[in-house]
Design brief:
The complex is a heterodimer of chains A (130) and B (291). Helix content of chain A is 25%, strand content 44%. By secondary structure, chain A is an alpha+beta fold. Chain A has two domains: 5-86, F0F1 ATP synthase delta/epsilon subunit, N-terminal (ATP Synthase, domain 1), CATH 2.60.15; 92-129, no CATH class. In chain A, strands 1, 2, 3, 4, 5, 6, 7, 8 and 9 form a nine-stranded mixed sheet that branches. In chain A, helix 1 runs antiparallel to helix 2. Chain A is globular and about 50 Å long. With 291 residues, chain B is an alpha/beta fold. Chain B folds into two domains: 4-19 and 252-282, Orthogonal Bundle (Helix Hairpins); 23-250, Pyruvate Kinase, Chain: A, domain 1 (3-Layer(aba) Sandwich), CATH 3.40.1380. Helices cover 62% and strands 14% of the residues of chain B. Chain B has a five-stranded mixed sheet, sandwiched between helices. In chain B, a hairpin with a 5-residue loop joins strand 4 and strand 5 (186-194). Chain B is elongated. The chains are: A alpha+beta (130), B alpha/beta (291). Chains A and B meet through strand 4 and strand 7 of A and helix 1, helix 5, strand 6 and helix 6 of B. Strand 4 (43-47) of chain A pairs parallel with strand 6 (211-213) of chain B, so a sheet runs across the interface.
Chain lengths: 130, 291
């Protein structure tokens, strides 16, 4: 029996990625990293900034996301996100831009605790990429 | 009757107008294809979002404490209308149709004694509304500089709407846009986004139980603001496809009308030319006869 399931990543502009032969996906869920294997229970969760790791036969892929929602149901994993970048395409200057944006946001004293947590997380992840 | 020279000039001018409208039609057709494509590509996102929200809201146990974006503020006093139009004209009835729809809605609100606030997206709508409802318009946003509808812009509008909702500036929010059906038909739509209208369509209701992490309420309160931006983005995509479709058919009509006009003017031109020749002939013959 195959141990593979389907993943679909959608962003507002288009269907970003569809893969049918995924064996494991690690997503940065809000309450910590979450590994999803085949026949996982149906789950809905949302993402904090981090790295999505997709492990499949055709090779592993890493994506950087800033936010999003995951839904897993009947061995279909859907990830809705408005900002996603393939790590191999994310060059240094783009990283710096994102980091700068995040730091600007973090320096705003008026944001609430939750967004502060998310922004700090974002900065941490972006720094670790360098 | 106009002189031959005048007619000639008119024919030339109508012909050059025809060239312009023809070119505009071509451009609109090319843009339409792209806009239609992106509208179709954008659909999975909003559909998925909708599905998840449906699943979530049906799972919510405590309706009283549901997030306000879903249940509303409890009042029904102040209505915010986001009227989405284009930034450019020459697109047939595209803008007027939205405005007409919006205006009839405004009249209904006024009859019910509700307060009205308007945000216009796109400068054409602002132009048309500011005459009658200038004092109600609280903001005008236009994306003249961005070539395509993009999510970033939609998010800007969405954030603004949510900020105003949280500041309790309004109770109900409705967006107006044109839904793209095909090149000749665009349907003006009024869609209520706050509070969210969760239609209880049976087919979408899944009996699967989900595990939520963190709990439903928190996910929902995180998801609903995103959904607003998504809905606005969807409206923007539909609008841009509709705008191009509308412009294309308007320009197609204009080209055809110009063609008809050229034909008519040409006939008139030939008739007067003939008349002039006949007149000259008669003059020569009667002159010869009198000798």
């Amino acid at each position: 029996m195959s141990e593979e399931f389907k993943i679909e990543i959608v962003n507002p502009e288009k269907s970003f990625l569809v893969k049918e032969d995924v064996s494991e996906v690690v997503v940065p869920a809000f309450e910590g990293e979450m590994g999803i294997l085949k026949d996982h229970i149906s789950i809905i969760s949302f993402l904090k900034p981090g790295i999505i790791k997709i492990l499949s036969k055709s090779g592993d892929e890493n994506y950087y996301v800033e936010d999003g929602i995951v839904e897993f149901k009947n061995n279909n994993l859907s990830i809705l996100t408005s900002s996603i970048f393939n790590l191999t395409d994310l060059d240094k200057s783009k990283q710096q831009d994102l980091l700068k944006l995040a730091e600007e946001e973090a320096s705003n004293p008026e944001i609430n605790d939750q967004s502060r947590y998310l922004v700090d997380q974002k900065i941490e992840v972006l720094r670790s990429l360098n | 009757m106009a002189s031959l020279d005048d007619l000639k000039k008119r024919i030339a001018s109508v012909k050059s107008t025809q060239k312009i409208t023809k070119a505009m039609k071509m451009v609109a057709a090319a843009k339409l294809r792209r806009a239609q494509e992106s509208a179709e590509k954008g659909r999975p996102y909003s559909e998925k979002m909708n599905n998840i929200i449906l699943n979530l809201s049906s799972g919510i146990s405590d309706k009283e404490n549901a997030p306000k974006l879903l249940s509303g503020s409890g009042n029904d006093k102040v209505h915010l209308c986001v009227v989405m139009t284009s930034d450019r004209g020459l697109c047939g009835g595209f803008n007027s149709n939205i405005i007409k729809k919006a205006k009839s809605y405004f009249v209904r609100l006024a009859e019910q004694g509700k307060d009205l606030k308007i945000i216009t997206v796109g400068s054409k709508g602002n132009d048309q509304l500011k005459r009658a409802y200038g004092d109600k318009i609280i903001a005008n946003i236009s994306f003249k500089e961005s070539k395509h509808a993009n999510y970033f812009d939609a998010e800007k509008v969405g954030k603004m709407v949510i900020e105003k909702f949280e500041a309790e500036e309004f109770d109900v929010c409705t967006i107006f846009y044109n839904q793209f059906k095909n090149v000749i038909t665009q349907i003006p739509q009024a869609q209520q986004i706050i509070p969210l209208n969760v239609e209880n369509s049976e087919e979408n209701k899944s009996e699967d139980s989900y595990e939520f992490e963190p709990d439903e309420d928190e996910i929902l309160s995180n998801l609903l603001p995103k959904n607003i931006s998504t809905q606005i983005f969807k409206a923007m995509l539909e609008n841009s496809a509709s705008e191009q479709g509308s412009r294309m058919s308007a320009m197609d009509n204009a080209t055809r009308n110009a063609g008809e006009m050229v034909d008519k003017l040409t006939i008139e031109y030939n008739r007067s030319r003939q008349a002039a020749i006949t007149k000259e002939l008669i003059e020569i013959i009667s002159g010869a006869e009198s000798l």
